[in-house]
Amino acid sequence: MFIYLRSENNIGDFLKGRAASKSTAHSKKVKRQENKVNAAKASRKKALAKAKAKISIEAKKKAKELEKKRLERQQKREQAKKVLEAINTVLANDAFVEYIHTNVGRYGVEVMKRLTVPKTDDALANELNVKVNEVRRVLNLLSGYGITKYDTEKDSKGWLTFHWYVDVEKLLEFNSNISTKKEEAGIGLPEDCDDFFVCEKCFDYNKVVLPFDVAFEHSFKCPDCGKPLKRLSKEEAKSLLLEKEKVI
Question: Fewer CB within a 10 Å sphere, N or C end of the chain?
Fold first, then answer.
């Protein structure tokens, strides 16, 4: 009997120990699972925070780019307005318009009017419905006076595109010089030219005397009607323009 009870006690202790061991193992397993869950939560939280930070950085970058573009558009509008005001100022000066007509040709003023924003020679030619070579000639002549300048842009194939624009300061300075010369000399003909040309048919309405370079570019034919131009000496050209001023 004693032995039996002792055995029962041993079995009880054994079972209790086994139960305790199972409980400990279960607790450890639960703990490991909790740790895994917590680690997963922490990982997801970290990933979410990283994603939010990335989104925030991209949002800030995008906002910065949008603000930069907005400022660029605003600057372009302000520059275009500034150029337009300068062009309107010089075109209100008859002496300036006459000088451009005489030394650049009939498209000189038209080209300037369209350069409130930078444009290519092809775009200008399309707007004016004239050959691109004529536009390039005008732009180069205006560039010689400092009125127009250009920026270049190279494409992936290495081809250059020229974007022409008006130099406002030079334009206003040139206009001022023309006005001064007009007051001092009474007429605006280039000093380095002795041969001038006029269309006898069109002069009454266009009042244009062409210097040699411009007449040569037009093959010594009137840009308006196509008839041959008449050659004048500098003195004859001055007299003709002075007579025109008296009529005006």
Answer: N
Express each pLDDT in 87-129 by its tens digit.
999 999 988 998 888 778 889 999 999 999 999 999 999 999 9
Q: Residues with Cβ < 8 Å from 209, sequence gap 6 or more?
A: 102, 189, 196, 197, 198, 203, 232, 237, 240, 241
> Percentage of the chain surpassing pLDDT 70?
82
CA distances from 130 to 125, 127, 218, 223 (A): 5, 8, 13, 12
pLDDT at residue 58 tops 70: yes
Structural domains in the chain, sorted by start? 66-187 (1.10.10.10), 189-248 (no CATH)
Tokens 């062409």 sit on residue: 210
